[in-house]
Amino acid sequence: MASKGSEVFTNLGKNFISSYNNENNEVLVYRRGTSIPSKIELLANGKIALVNEDGSISWYDKANRSPVSQWYLITGNTEDGPSAQWKVF
Question: Could you tell me which of 6, 88, 7 has the C-alpha nearest to residue 48?
């Protein structure tokens, strides 16, 4: 759960994220990405960042209420040693 100003965000529910505005009693529902969110962070630029249970990160724009981008980290070994890359899906 996260809050900013009069808005409270929650990941209660299996398939969505919801926000509740205490000032106008408005409830907004955001379509969930590929994994269940475990941490919600509200950013000053009107974006919402979610860290998901599978380690991926989902970015939302509050205006359209659906994922703008989703990233996941790929790790492995190369001939130069361990490596990690962020991939967009």
Answer: 7
**What secondary structure, in 3-state letters, does the chain show?**
CEEECCEEEECCCCCEEEEEECCCCCEEEEECCCCCEEEEEECCCCEEEEEECCCCEEEEECCCCCEEEEEEEEEEEECCEEEEEEEEC
User: In residues, how long is the chain?
Assistant: 89
Mean pLDDT across 36-43? 79
Q: What digits encode the pLDDT tens for the residues 55-86?
A: 888 888 888 877 788 887 778 888 888 887 77
